Amino acid sequence: MSVVKINALAVPAEMREELERRFSNRAGMVESSDGFEWFELLRPVEGTERYLVYTRWRSEEDFQRWQESQAFQAGHARAAAEAAQGQAAGGQEAGHGHGQAAGQGHGHGQGPAATGAELWSFEVVQSAGHKND
Ligand code: HEM
After folding, report:
1. Higher pLDDT, residue 10 or 84
2. Which of 47, 119, 129, 133 is a good FRET partner for 88, with 20 to 30 A between their CA atoms?
3. 86-124 per-residue burial string, b: 16 or more CB within 10 A, e: under 16
4. What's the pTM?
5. Mean pLDDT in residue range 24-41
6. Which residue minimizes the CA distance to atom 22 of ligand 1?
7. Distance from C-alpha of 95 to C-alpha of 104, rounded to nearest angstrom
């Protein structure tokens, strides 16, 4: 059974562009991770202010393996480095609650792009799709 893992990011309005820029330059390593099925970066339009990083995996184990992998670290290397820099400069901690070393936060000079991150987990009960692009 596939699982969906959504990282919900709180992003101040003035940091949205920066966040999207980071994602457009992302490592792209997640695509080649074993058990990876889908990724989307979702920009909020109505009903929430949070960006969602949607990922879908063949199994919980595949997701866990990716999170512990070099690919995850590489995908968050800049975020982690900039967070460390932000802290050295007295920047804020990103303040999300899931103790991974990479992506612990990601301040960058003017402050973190996301001020918080929350990981949501789901099991896929049903799905259907048709992609038009
Ligand atoms: C710990 C809090 C986290 C924060 C603040 C965060 C933020 C970010 C940011 C800013 C990027 C863009 C790349 C960069 O700047 O280096 C990124 C990449 C990414 N994040 Fe996170 N992230 C976190 C944890 C997670 C988790 C738990 C997931 C699982 C759903 C996830 C999924 C992804 C994916 C799939 C990418 C693209 C990586 C690639 O292309 O290989 N992130 N994240």
Report:
1. 10
2. 119
3. bbeeebeebebeeeeebbbbbbbeebbbbbbbeeeeeee
4. 0.82
5. 95
6. 103
7. 8
Q: Select from 3.30.70.100, 3.40.50.300, 3.30.43.10, 3.40.50.720 the CATH code of 3-123.
A: 3.30.70.100
The pLDDT score that the predictor gives to residue 109 is: 44
Task: State if residue 106 touches ligand 1 by the CB under 6 angstroms criterion.
Answer: yes
More confident residue, 8 or 113: 8
Task: Assess whether the C-beta atom of 112 lies below 6 angstroms from ligand 1.
Answer: no
| CB 83 near ligand 1, within 6 Å | no
How far, in Å, is the centroid of ligand 1 from the Cα of 123? Answer: 20
Which SS3 state, helix, strand or coil, does residue 117 take? Answer: strand
User: Residue 71 CA: which ligand 1 atom is closest?
Assistant: 41
